[in-house]
Write a structure and sequence with these properties.
The protein is of the alpha+beta class and 291 residues long. Strands 2, 3, 4, 5, 10, 11, 12 and 13 form an eight-stranded antiparallel sheet that branches. It has a three-stranded antiparallel sheet with strand order 7-6-8, with no helix packed on it. It has a two-stranded antiparallel sheet with strand order 1-9. The chain has one domain. It contains eight helices and 13 strands. A hairpin with a 5-residue loop joins strand 3 and strand 4.
Length: 291
Amino acid sequence: MSNIGGEKRESVQFEEKDFPKKVGLFEAKVIAVNPTREEYSDILGRQLSEESKATNYLGTSKDGNSRLRLDFWLEEVKSAEKFKLTFFVEQKEKENRDGTKKQYINNVGRCTWADSPNNLPSWFKERDNRVAYVGEEDLYNFLRSWLSLIDFSKKSATLEVEFKKLMNGNVKELKEQINGEWATNIVALATINSKETEEGTKEFQTVYNKAFMPSYSMKAFRLVDYNKPETVSGLRQKGSKDLKPHERFVLNVTGEYGCKDFYTFQELKDYNADDNLVSSDRVIADDDSDF
């Protein structure tokens, strides 16, 4: 894949069946990207009905722009249980609410904000860059975690998926990275999303899509209980440079713009609805957040 690579760094609820829901942290590998009907059967072991819209990945946003849903299927390394991680990318340049700044993305998936290309940070302008589209920041944050064997500190590193191809539904570049030379296992967070419907409250299996960790981070959660408010409060007293990857993850999830779904910083376990008492108090920023 020509636009992803560099030097290697050294060291849902389904229409057909209701699967048991899980919450918590889990180590996983990517096994599929926007699977076809055949791949649903062959890779995921799930049969789609003729009426299923699970493979309808292209659509239109509420603003009338082309939009692509990207489903990355994760397989938990211990149990082989499968989880769907979803991103939405829209053919619309990312701006803040008052239109005074745009988000920019460089050729290794880093993002920043500026009111003009001339005012981009010097460190950012050292690499090729462009205006980012809605949804790209979260997508590339995940790709940097998944393809972390690329040494992103090297000038030769690149992490670019051709946007035009994506918006035509072509995800070949991403599929080629499955079990590829840059791919690693990641730690993700399984959550439960509650929605009010005409039939009452319904709960859906989800995976938090704004932060991930390297696989070695799991051991930190066996030693410290990050569900305790006092533990999180202690992390907030640290300087940004002093935070470890798993501590940054905790602050991302628990922050003002963190996860609004029900979650726990324990290892993956069966979901108990009786535990879900405070999920409505958790908030998350929408795509139009100010910066």
